[in-house]
Amino acid sequence: MAFCPIFCCLNVSDRKGRGKKQPPWRVFSLKELHSATNNFNYDNKLGEGGFGSVYWGQLWDGSQIAVKRLKVWSNKADMEFAVEVEILARVRHKNLLSLRGYCAEGQERLIVYDYMPNLSLLSHLHGQHSTESLLDWNRRMNIAIGSAEGIVYLHVQATPHIIHRDVKASNVLLDSDFQARVADFGFAKLIPDGATHVTTRVKGTLGYLAPEYAMLGKANESCDVYSFGILLLELASGKKPLEKLSSSVKRAINDWALPLACEKKFSELADPRLNGDYVEEELKRVILVALICAQNQPEKRPTMVEVVELLKGESKEKVLQLENNELFKNPLAVGNTNDEISAAEGSSDFISAENESKHEMEENAEP
Ligand SMILES: Nc1ncnc2c1ncn2[C@@H]1O[C@H](COP(=O)(O)OP(=O)(O)OP(=O)(O)O)[C@@H](O)[C@H]1O
Ligand SMILES: *[C@@H]1O[C@H](CO)[C@@H](O)[C@H](O)[C@H]1NC(C)=O
Ligand SMILES: *[C@@H]1O[C@H](CO)[C@@H](O)[C@H](O)[C@H]1NC(C)=O
Ligand SMILES: CC(=O)N[C@H]1CO[C@H](CO)[C@@H](O)[C@@H]1O
Ligand SMILES: [Mg+2]
Fold it and tell me: Nearest-CA neighbor of 219 among 262, 164, 170?
């Protein structure tokens, strides 16, 4: 089989895997995945993202899986797929949704995960579970810290280091205990350059994109920090990253939250579904951390290690420094910029990424 040599090298260097009887991941046959998902039956479909459809399935041993079936593939990238997926599959952390394996047969490329019974953060904040209000403040705090720890692992502990590139509410899945599992890390890299895909992705995740990433398409750790800041604001407020104010005007969540935070109106930022039931100090901390993450200048954002420390609030001194950050000092400067993005010319649902980028560039250029 074509992937054999890669396997062998990786297994030799995988020291953690040594001594264990069962490898943490394996290669699946297409046949097995067909039977697990009832031939990729429409009824098994969990959803669809930028890379293809995701199906629920059950293996012969009864375990539940989610299978992502990639829709675009180029022959050229064949080997890269296997190498990349094998690297990602070796990543293990309590807050990461690891790969269980993959399948690469003919033109088919599939990735197999554990099924997460409580679905995504997105489904609880804005989707099918949103009316059930299952996310009390304690759960939200755990999800915030847990997902941050998952990203820290990717940024500093994984070898090689991994930049997620697509941190957002649909990529934070929840296990049976509502613990956060960050999914789809490092995945954007797998898609060949120039695929129509890239456009879809940029549009689809617009509200989370760091301005420098939207403009140049180059991601580093600071881009994940920005996206994580947006995610935190979403988690605390229950609002979407981009809120439609009218048919032509959309407002970014950080532009809405910053002036309120400067005026210390934290209770106005809390998700109404919490019914005032939250720890004030924690809410304030989450909002402040979120906003220093989701600021335009990448070099001013904290690292994810600092984010975890701040969210946990263990160092009173650092929390105080956070409160005194220059970002929260000058509400006037904030109000000056156009905090409402106009999409007036087009009637399309999304602001074009290029136009958005230009807009943000202008904002940056202002003193
Ligand atoms: N292991 C899983 N268990 C349960 N639901 C899952 C699992 N993996 C994905 N999903 C859900 O399936 C849907 C489609 O996921 P997919 O990752 O393809 O798209 P996405 O997260 O919306 O966007 P992106 O392609 O950028 O990741 C999402 O709602 C996601 O939360
Ligand atoms: C990421 O790149 C930006 C420039 O686009 C830079 O300012 C920032 O410091 C970089 N972040 C890290 C963690 O290297
Ligand atoms: C940017 O917006 C203008 C209108 O302001 C529109 O005509 C143009 O097509 C947009 N560009 C893209 C790439 O969508
Ligand atoms: C809302 C929801 O789907 N809750 C589920 C979370 O996961 C546990 C364990 O599978 C289920 O029992 C809950 O119903
Ligand atoms: Mg996803």
Answer: 164
Q: Any idea which ligand is nearest the CA of 72?
A: 1
312 marked as binding residue: no
Helix axis angle, 304-312 to 316-323, nearest 10°: 110
In the DSSP assignment, the letter for residue 350 is S
4-114: CATH topology is Phosphorylase Kinase; domain 1 (3.30.200)
Atom number of ligand 1 nearest to Cα 116: 3
Non-local (6+) Cβ contacts of 194 within 8 A are: none
To which residue do tokens 């089989």 refer? 1
**Euclidean distance between CA atoms 184 and 176, whole angstroms:** 19
CA of 55 from ligand 1 middle (Å) equals 9
Of ligand 4's atoms, which has the minimum distance to the CA of residue 119?
3
Rounded to an integer, the average pLDDT of 50-77 is 87
Determine the Cα–Cα distance for residues 270 and 301; give it in Å rounded to an integer: 23
CA torsion sign for 204, 209, 214, 220 is negative
pLDDT at residue 30 greater than cutoff 60? yes
Q: Where in the chain is the domain with CATH 3.30.200.20?
A: 4-114
**Catalytic machinery residues:** 166
Fold of 121-361: Transferase(Phosphotransferase); domain 1 (1.10.510)
Separation of alpha carbons 11 and 126, rounded Å: 41
- Ligand 3 center to 355 CA (angstroms): 6
Question: According to CATH, where is 1.10.510.10 located in the chain?
Answer: 121-361
pTM of the shown model: 0.83
